[in-house]
Design brief:
- The chain has 97 residues and is α+β, with helices and mostly antiparallel strands.
- The chain has one domain: Alpha-Beta Barrel (ADP-ribosylation fold), CATH 3.20.170.20.
- It is 25% helix and 39% strand.
- It has a three-stranded antiparallel beta sheet.
- The longest helix has 10 residues, at 8-17.
Amino acid sequence: MIYHIVENEKWQQSLKEGFYEADSLATEGFIHASKEEQVAGVIERYYQGKSNLLLLHIDENKLLPELRYELAPSINEEFPHIFGRQNLDAVINVFTL
């Protein structure tokens, strides 16, 4: 299981479009994700003070695009990266943060 944080509005748009595509896919070439133990740190570093967020629970076995674990040198941890539009059926749970 991997996890991704998204604004509710963006997720609702994805449900209408039939796929999920984070802005980082266009700017960095992949969608950022986290392992369970990394979620709290990601929220602390990048989402302080933000509201209307969802945590997507993603079954990596159902993902159609390539998934790679890559090193984030700034904190010396490997994070899961999704290289393509994410198929919605890989999301097995959505949790409100």
